[in-house]
Amino acid sequence: MDGVRIPDLLTDRLLLRRWRDGDATFAFELYSRWEVQRFLGRTPRVMADLREAEALVRRLRRREDRFRAYRVVELAATGEPLGTVMLQPLPASGASEPLRPSGDTEIGWHFHPAHWGRGYATEAAGSLLAAALDDGCPRVLAVTYPDNRASQRVCERIGMTSLGVSDAYYNTAMELFERTA
Question: Model's pTM, two decimal places?
Answer without folding.
Answer: 0.91
